[in-house]
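Q: I have 287 residues here and want to know how they pack in 3D. Can you give me a structure?
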Amino acid sequence: MTKNERRAKAREEAERVRQEELKRAKRHRIIAIVAVFVVLAIVIGVVVAVVNSQKKSSPSAASSGSSSTTGTSPLGATTDLITQQIDHVGKDGGISVGKSLVAGSSNAGAPVVDTYFDVMCPFCTIVEQQDGEGLADMAKSGDITLVFHPLSLGMFANTPYSILGAQAEYFVAEHVPEKFVEFHNNLFTNVSNVNLEQTATATKPGVAEIVEQATKAGLTDSQVADLKSALESNSYKPYVDSIMKQMTKNGLKGTPTVYVNGTEIQTINQSQNSMVLSEVQRIVKGK
């Protein structure tokens, strides 16, 4: 092989090696780019998973009904004294129901009716017995969002049923939201009515009477046992007390008190009959 031939062969070999290096470098670049995209995909997947996990662990009222619609009355304007929050209950202590009549639900865009009551209050019993079913029907039809505000007035401080009844309402709203309205109705129909028929020998209702109504509303034996334990230990009393302090600070004068879209309406007429349903219908439906 001549000298020129050797040089030519060397150049060809050098070119072959250079081309191989270029191909290898190109493959490495492709692998690196693919690796970057794989890493980015993994990172994005982790971020999405974390966000979804946070959403599931902190459900919103719209997605799970865990937080009740806050009422529109001025009595719920500030809530600084209410430090505790429980499921299916608004920041102001209101328990809203919509078409499903499940505690924590609402009817989007519908007028909001806030009702403030004490299970021991005779006039509240009149309103509930005469108009409670009609108001619930309006919520079920989607005409209103009905918001219940259980309270325990100071004037009933020596009657355990007042504070026990309010605690029971919050327990059921939190733990058995689908039974809340039925349980609430049972209390006023079968227990609170004793205040309208009170005699000198009648006994004030207590834990046993409340638990009985929970059973009638369809709570399981386990749920009833938990309710009984909660009432006997007064576990919801600090919460109810904080709501009562807040409502008093915000201007509550007594019960029954009812607001429609933030405007207070008359509840009882001079004949001691409820005017709530007719007033709500007049405002909401123009009747």
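Q: Anything worth noting?
A: The longest strand covers residues 112-117. Residues 36-66 have pLDDT under 50 and may be disordered.
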